[in-house]
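Recall that a protein's primary structure is simply its ordered list of amino acids. Everything else, from secondary elements to tertiary packing, is in principle encoded there. The following example makes that idea concrete.
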Amino acid sequence: MWLGLINEEVDKVGRCRNVLKEARDGKIQIWTSALTLAEVFKAKCNGTKTSLEEDKDKDFENFVDQEFLTLVQVDQDIGAAARRLLRSHSKLKKPADAIHLATALENNLDELHTFDLDNLIPLSGSIYKLDGTVLTICIPPESDQSDLFEIPSK
């Protein structure tokens, strides 16, 4: 989801911005794994992947330091849970995806937003959070527009 936002991918950016607006308006809280800080390093430019420009890199670090966003550390529990998820779910192919999934499960989050139709979304409703309820894994809802990395004045 973060790369869809940063890369301003036409089919994703509107949905991502809608989630950000909901968070800025206090309707939801966004949680993400600290792994995200490294994952956003590669950005698409004209169809090829290049390193994220240093000024945008700092912008993203400042962006995730907002009140509506919780950055979750990848600790031993998250790492072990991610490894177990990879072993028990053959559709889950990437360790990074498993870390994001484990982060959601270990923190009893309501939804995991993704555009990964092959590896993550098929697991929706079949994986249990720590509280015993199932996790919804879905594409973020449509709508709205806002400025990328905008930090509201306090």
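Strands lie at 30-33, 42-45, 48-51, 69-72, 111-113, 136-138. The chain has six helices and six strands.
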